[in-house]
Amino acid sequence: MRNVLIIGATQGTGRELAAAYLRDGMNVVITGREATRAEAVAAELTAEAAESTATATGRPQAATTGDGSPSVGSATGLALDLSRPETVAAALAPVEQVHRLVLVGMVRDRNTLAGFDVMAASQLAVTKVVGYTAVVAALAERLTPDAAVLLFGGGAKDYPYPGSTTLTAVNAAVTGMVRTLSIELAPVRVNAIHPGPIEDSPFWQGKAELAETLATFRAETLTGELGGMADIVDACRFLLENRLANGIDLPLDGGHP
Q: What are phi and psi of 29, to 5 degrees?
């Protein structure tokens, strides 16, 4: 059975991607900053995948495939803090062979020059640039030759806004990481995805104060639409599973004039 590791998957798009791979019968390891939370979400995901498969097939949740293997995978939760890259290798010690590695974890930072928060900017930069690289370095010897790595950047790379200086710079750095890591890890494939605002992500849900911001983002797209988590998961699966997808920085935001 193939193994998927998703860094930062206790909510949002990371969680949805984990759920999709579980329904495919993969074993999935998810991480979050807190072990209790990661373990709880892993248990939820395993139960949901089993129930989904049972509903679709009419078989009991414990059903197996024809060769006796489980019809759905299982999820495991681990604690990992990308903002403390010196702890990453030890946190990943329990992980064995990896076929798919996805780095979703991030911290949000709207940091204008007028009140520039050095600590917040440093945490963001360390989390994505140093933290992501530390994960890949720790797992390099455990990536199978046909493995794929996917890094999450973001639309601010190409479309900055007031307060996005650090975020824009860090997401642009993800592009550089794709170029270098795809060479260092070859034949392992390395890609990045740069979504615009994800309309149904937990960050935007139930926050009336952000409705106007979301409407502005929507109006700026050529399609007049914003993506949902299902759209992002679909694109992630393409980058991870297509054997010729390598060295790609994929914007996924409906297009801009």
A: -110, 125
One-letter amino acid for residue 202 of the chain? P
pTM as predicted: 0.90
Rounded Cα distance, 168 and 172, in Å = 6
Report pLDDT digits (tens) over 65-104.
444 544 568 999 999 999 999 999 999 999 999 999 999 9
Residue with the two structure tokens 């950047």: 153
- pLDDT tens for 106-119 read 877 788 888 899 99
Exposure string (b/e) for 24-52, b if CB count within 10 Å is 16 or more?
Answer: ebbbbbbbbbeeeebbebbeebbebbbee
SS3 154: coil
Is residue 198 within 8 Å of residue 12, measured between CB atoms? Answer: yes
CA dist., res. 185 & res. 162, Å (int): 36
- For residue 5, what are its two tokens? 């590791």
